[in-house]
Hints:
Layout: H1 10-20, H2 33-49, H3 61-65, H4 69-85, E1 101-103, E2 111-113
Antiparallel strand pairs: 1-2
Amino acid sequence: MRPRVSDDNAFSEALFRTLKYCRSFPQRAFTSPQDAKAWTARFVTWHNTEHRHSAIRFVTPEDRHLGREAALLAQRHQVYQRARARPPSAGAATPATGRQWAQCASSPHRKCRS
């Protein structure tokens, strides 16, 4: 449960965590303000056009803003329906949620949601 204080901002904290664990986040300090601005511009573009957000059913903000969300979710639903209709192969798991998994940048041996 999140604390109920006036300076708590879950949205900015979630964005900072995404930024901090982004694979392209620099290991060392930026060499200039221009380098920081350029990296931030690339991050914002990636965050809005490529990164799928769990809070909006794993579509990008761009997809949602441009009205592509419904078509993408319908297409995803069709894929899951076809996968569920196929007989399972030995040891295969049934697709349950459609969440995508990737290796964590901070812990490559663990899996985390992307």
